[in-house]
Amino acid sequence: MWRSLVAHFVRDEGAAGSNPVIPIVVLQQYQQLLQQTDSNSQFERIVLDEIYQRGYKLPDAVQELIPEANCKPDFLYKEDGIAVFCDGSVHDSPEKRKQDQIDRDNLKHSTSYHIIVLRHDEDWRRELTKLASL
Predict the structure, then answer these.
(1) Are 91 and 102 a contacting pair, CB within 8 Å?
(2) Whose CA is closest to 22, among 13, 36, 99, 47?
(3) Which has more pLDDT, 13 or 72?
(4) Quick one: CA dihedral 67, 70, 76, 82, positive or negative?
(5) CB neighbours of 121 closer than 8 A, spacing ≥ 6?
């Protein structure tokens, strides 16, 4: 989305010598968020890169604890009330899935966050389109 706005800006203003600010700011935000991802989660970085490549709104926070739920989603869209969980292969065991469900139920009942779960072994790219309207 922002990319089409930037392309329009560059096409209309680029000839005048203006430097588009939007892509620089977005790139810096993306790089900062990438550094904050879980170093053990390649899937989390893949998802963040997909969000960036699609031009979707980037998360406001990565790996931020929500104290009232004692839960740490992978990505938070605070203003939009969305918590995103990126479940790589470490989340495949029945025990981990059960704990994940408990944590997410706690988040759901303790806050007003809408929860999106992206599983590595499911069509997570289709699920990611829920972020397109942000």
Answers:
(1) no
(2) 13
(3) 72
(4) negative
(5) 89, 92
